[in-house]
Amino acid sequence: MSNLLRLWDSTGLAHFQPGQVVMILIGLCLLFLAIRKQFEPLLLVPIGFGGVLANIPGAGLAYSAAENALHSADPAVLAEMARLLGQSVASDAEALLQALGMAAAPVQQAAASAAGAAGFSDGMLYTFYTVAIASGVAPLVIFMGVGAMTDFGPLLANPRTLFLGAAAQFGIFATVLGAVGLSTLGLMDFSLADAAAIGIIGGADGPTAIYVASLLAPDLLGPIAVAAYSYMALVPLIQPPIMRALTTQAEREIVMTQLREVSQREKIVFPLMLLILVALLLPAAAPLLGMFCFGNLMKECGVVKRLSDAAQNALINITTIFLGLSVGSKLVADKFLDIETLGIMLLGVVAFAIGTASGVLIAKLMNRFGSHPLNPLIGSAGVSAVPMAARVSNRLGLEANPSNYLLMHAMGPNVAGVIGSAVAAGVMISLVGV
Amino acid sequence: MSNLLRLWDSTGLAHFQPGQVVMILIGLCLLFLAIRKQFEPLLLVPIGFGGVLANIPGAGLAYSAAENALHSADPAVLAEMARLLGQSVASDAEALLQALGMAAAPVQQAAASAAGAAGFSDGMLYTFYTVAIASGVAPLVIFMGVGAMTDFGPLLANPRTLFLGAAAQFGIFATVLGAVGLSTLGLMDFSLADAAAIGIIGGADGPTAIYVASLLAPDLLGPIAVAAYSYMALVPLIQPPIMRALTTQAEREIVMTQLREVSQREKIVFPLMLLILVALLLPAAAPLLGMFCFGNLMKECGVVKRLSDAAQNALINITTIFLGLSVGSKLVADKFLDIETLGIMLLGVVAFAIGTASGVLIAKLMNRFGSHPLNPLIGSAGVSAVPMAARVSNRLGLEANPSNYLLMHAMGPNVAGVIGSAVAAGVMISLVGV
Amino acid sequence: MSNLLRLWDSTGLAHFQPGQVVMILIGLCLLFLAIRKQFEPLLLVPIGFGGVLANIPGAGLAYSAAENALHSADPAVLAEMARLLGQSVASDAEALLQALGMAAAPVQQAAASAAGAAGFSDGMLYTFYTVAIASGVAPLVIFMGVGAMTDFGPLLANPRTLFLGAAAQFGIFATVLGAVGLSTLGLMDFSLADAAAIGIIGGADGPTAIYVASLLAPDLLGPIAVAAYSYMALVPLIQPPIMRALTTQAEREIVMTQLREVSQREKIVFPLMLLILVALLLPAAAPLLGMFCFGNLMKECGVVKRLSDAAQNALINITTIFLGLSVGSKLVADKFLDIETLGIMLLGVVAFAIGTASGVLIAKLMNRFGSHPLNPLIGSAGVSAVPMAARVSNRLGLEANPSNYLLMHAMGPNVAGVIGSAVAAGVMISLVGV
Amino acid sequence: MVVREDELFMQGVELMLFGVSAVVIFLSLLVLAIGLASQVILRFFPQPAESQAVAQRRTSAAPAESSLDAERIAVITAAVHQHRQRGRNG
Amino acid sequence: MVVREDELFMQGVELMLFGVSAVVIFLSLLVLAIGLASQVILRFFPQPAESQAVAQRRTSAAPAESSLDAERIAVITAAVHQHRQRGRNG
Amino acid sequence: MVVREDELFMQGVELMLFGVSAVVIFLSLLVLAIGLASQVILRFFPQPAESQAVAQRRTSAAPAESSLDAERIAVITAAVHQHRQRGRNG
Ligand code: NA
Ligand code: NA
Ligand code: NA
């Protein structure tokens, strides 16, 4: 009979908590959006699935060995952990979990050792998270792959569009202000580091957002990643009304002059130049922009096709699988179902809206000064969300004037936005980090 | 001259032990079977080669730094290690190795540190084993790839065949009984956990067997993996006599009705449904079946072709290389050449035979009740060994009736067997584990 | 204002040191040679780029967490580190860095822990180095891939060419002598282990050189890798004058007899035979030659095409990216800009020259005894540098006699050179290591 | 000692009984769930013919492949066209 | 408490100002650098027509691909040739 | 000090002698082993013509490739066939 009890106790049914049910439904909902609506499926399929896995009761896939030991509710183990954590033996698991979260590194190691000796081990998703995200490697590798897939030709042909990529980053910083504002009003409880990580959602760049969040606010990584990818997928819904509201029909009809051909040498020199500028001015952005430039150089130099292919295919795909599952590990109920998550989702959409608006408005401003005409619709592409935002610009351009193809022109601000948010990330890390 | 002595001492010839010679011959024999007879070559080539590497005398490729230090027979090192392990200074290397194996985690760390300081390092295969198998990652990643290559269409078209996949798992549990029986009779010395890990051989599923063995009986992982893959390769020899003995000619001639077409939506929903059932009932199977369902969802959802391709190609191939070499590291003479290995090889073939028989018999039983005819030959495919067992069913069907193509019908129980043994693995882990 | 100061302090401009500027220029120079002159671009692009990244001031990408903490010059952190390292609190960062480098493993761990608690983390390139090179894995994986790409047919058809591969390794050992000679003269300060690692440059085999250097002289890994790949790229310039000087026109015109067809079985048996010879005689070479033979067996056995493809493509390409960046991490100014680097560059070219000369001379000697004619031009291919050196032999052969195609004949000594330098590496490791 | 070994055997028997039951129950529930899901999907969410086509196209349309296919189809079409023409000519 | 929260808000404002300025300055310098580099390259290091062709060939010439392409081109050429011949015949 | 450095040099000489000998001995044994193995294989285990063909087919027969090859061969055959027909027609 003890076996029967053990079997029942080992089912999920015996341990399901309402939060876990909610989170599994949210995970399934992300999968639905990814598969049926094609919302950034490459990331949201693994994230959603990881979210479901993370909330399977009793499996402890998203927890460390020590956390799993504390969740086990085995009295002997709890007593031993309480001793190690310097807590009263009468403390319950909840209190010990909190104490574990705030313990110093050697104490945490001792707790991990004790948990291991008692037969507990790190959950699968926890292992993935440690290797892929906590080490910082996965977002950087993906950024390298993105660099190897990016063509800077349109940007080099019309460098002024970099300003549009800069303008759209205003959404990031406005959102930082919004987040600290909510804290000031007492509605939420975001620190400055949290606010900076939340702001980066407005950069519309998945790996950048995950990288910054893993450094500045690991506890908020789950909602930040979900918000970033969800809103990137929603760009075709969020941007058009803002773009229409801020432009006149005449502005939308502006036809831009054909871009010049950019030579291979210019394309090879560009990533090196960007790298040197980073070295001179913003070392905190060196990991992100360094890997990005490395990927781009491999693509453009034309002599390491094998490596460039690996960065664009096998390596980025494998990394994406584990990055997605790792993000999913942050969708455990007790970390995700929080009033802060609502705040993050709200601030995220505000960030996108402000970024879009800033891009369009600055494009209108630049149009007053430059000699070549600039269609303000391409300003919104500065938020990045490559290549979705550029396609939105193109679509609205065609609506206004059926022969007005803006796609190539919008690719300039679009890739500029990637650089812009990596620069913003560097600024945040150097001002707020450590 | 001291150099000459050192050179001679550094050759393998000076250190060869008979066991190592035997194991190298066994490794070469596995390679012969894999290459010439095409016995599961994808795994047995790396396993066999790893087995040879592991037994190169003096190279210590399969040992940890601390073990290598103890094998070195350097008196100063041995004295230091004896001190750390709390043994008498007079202890010989043999005794210290045993003490090391049973030491607590902090002591093992101290020993590893001391060995590192004395210039010893982890052997290459030991490193592979730690990263690939001890972490649990490699079998799970391979299971994800298998999921991404599996088509559940035939199973969904005829869900009753799941019972055949369940029936064949009887071989697993009968073998557990056999193993504890051997212990009870005093012929072998298997614990309940050992018995559970040995039983899983009957699941005819390499990654599942390796995963369970790495959790429940890491010392037996070598023989268990070798037995699992060898017998999977021998399925065309083991199964037919049993299948013929248990069926009549009339039964073998039964023609089954054409399977219906299964819609993409059913195929997308299936892995999610299976995952939720796992979450509700058997969290211990969540890592294995979770990764399997994830792979299958990536394949069927049709929106993440990049990731599905990576899981089916680059990722699974790379992982297979390291998994195989890592398993090879468990073929060191002093761990493999043991009476227990013989017991495992014997129990393994019994497990396959019982699984085959159960599948066929339950198919005959089901045929009495169901409305659609069921050819009992497809019952044997329930042991999994995808797709070999299904092909065996097909071949025997064609023998009996040259127009009786059973392949698609046998794929149902075949993939059901994969799920069945993963479920059995989950039951074992939750009842015996920790 | 404090923020403004912090921002300025966080730029690279505020921290640039002359050495870093020099190293960044050297990195750019390597990139120029790799891209424009196609000097071994697959390695020199990542190495050069990694070298630039490693020298970005303030980013600390090539340093461990503890080193980054010491570079930070934060007084509280310095005091804490001084305490841990057992140094006077008044010690400056320079002294503490030295003390850290020489501290025992547990002290280093404590320092790493303290640095982590103070918010410092391992630099990206440092992480790559630890995982890829310090573990020994990356060069071995690349060697496996090289094995899977190597065709031993020409060598098996004419096994005598193995002696040419042996002869060319004389360059390695002569260079060892040169290095200890420089130390004896007091010009440089190389230990015997350093000398052995430098000598391996003459093996003209990147992964072997990196593997040996990571074991015997990790501090010199940067210049050794750069020298090895640079001179491999320069083979078409270094070898021809030596080859012309040591051969007569008549010798260069020698036409060699057509090679026989080698059967698949001979090709399958060869890697196994080589492996067994390694096991018998030179276990220290087992990791290198073991992985090499494994790769070759996967290629030749014909039953694991999936794995062989993975080893030749995805796996080797991914590993090359990280190996190159990791080597780049050793190009930090304070480790690279040293008089020893000049010595290494000088000794490297001498090693290549002596190896080339030995190969040619032994070929001439063998020509006196053997029955089949041997064109001495193929002797130079014994240095390896596959396939560049074989192409050089072919080119000089065609110069002397426009119908004298030596390419296939030179492939024999060429691949023999790979085995030869791995054997030499094994000898070094067993005689000098630990 | 004998007691301990008998105990081990009893544990083995217990493991077998519970294990077999658990597997059978789990897979039975899965059979039920599949049946239910299939009926619900086929009745309430049948895949519209067009969407299935779209899905299939989507699945098989990695850009590289499709362009390759397009080219090959063009070549084959040309060849087949030729073939027919020749037939008429002959 | 109120002080602390006001402080947080002021820090946010500061972060916004410095951040926006830093991004704009960085990207402005990048615009200048691109312009300068383009002019220098186009004036002093123009890519010779032939070298560009070589570069392009090099880029796209992984051996496997090129042989495949060669074959495909051969087939297409043959087909097109046929087509023309047929035109003449018809 | 001088002693130590002389010692270092002597160690270098020793390393050179032992190293060169070891490499030469190892590779000589390998030459012998290759010769022996080749003779044994060619005399006692010659690869039967058919099995070699099978092996070759096996080696080159990743399903994707072979189907691609098959298709390409079909196209080429068709084209060549056309070509000959045209020759006869013309
Ligand atoms: Na952006
Ligand atoms: Na099974
Ligand atoms: Na060599």
Q: What is the general shape of chain D? A: rod-shaped
Question: Which percent range fits the helix content of chain A?
Answer: over 70%
Note the main sheet of chain A: none
Biggest sheet descriptor of chain D: none
**Topology of chain A as a string of helices (H) and strands (E):** HHHHHHHHHHHHHHHHHHHHHHHH
Jot down its keywords.
A: 434 residues, mainly alpha, 72% helix, 0% strand, elongated, D: 90 residues, 2 domains, disordered C terminus, binds sodium ion
Description:
The complex is a heterohexamer, with three copies of chain A (434 residues) and three copies of chain D (90 residues). Chain A is 72% helix and 0% strand. With 434 residues, chain A is mostly helical. In chain A, helix 9 (137-149) crosses helix 19. Chain D has 90 residues and is mainly alpha-helical. Chain D folds into two domains: 1-44; 62-90. Mean pLDDT of chain D is 66; it is low at 50-81 and 86-90. Classes of the chains: A mainly alpha (434), D mainly alpha (90). Chain B binds chain F through residues 3-4, 7, and chain F through 14-15, 18, 22. One sodium ion binds at residues 203-205, 383-384, 417-418, 420-421 of chain A.
Summarize the structure.
The complex is a heterohexamer, with three copies of chain A (434 residues) and three copies of chain D (90 residues). With 434 residues, chain A is an all-alpha fold. Helices cover 72% and strands 0% of the residues of chain A.
What is the topological layout?
The complex is a heterohexamer, with three copies of chain A (434 residues) and three copies of chain D (90 residues).
Chain A: H1 2-9, H2 18-36, H3 41-54, H4 65-71, H5 75-85, H6 93-102, H7 105-117, H8 124-134, H9 137-149, H10 153-157, H11 161-168, H12 170-184, H13 192-199, H14 206-216, H15 221-246, H16 249-252, H17 264-281, H18 286-301, H19 305-312, H20 314-328, H21 333-336, H22 339-369, H23 388-400, H24 407-432
Helix pairs in contact in A: 2-3, 3-20, 4-6, 4-7, 5-6, 5-7, 8-20, 9-14, 9-18, 9-19, 9-20, 11-22, 11-24, 12-13, 12-22, 13-14, 14-15, 14-24, 15-22, 15-23, 17-18, 18-19, 19-20, 23-24
Chain D: H1 2-44, H2 49-59, H3 63-89
The structure holds sodium ion (3 copies).
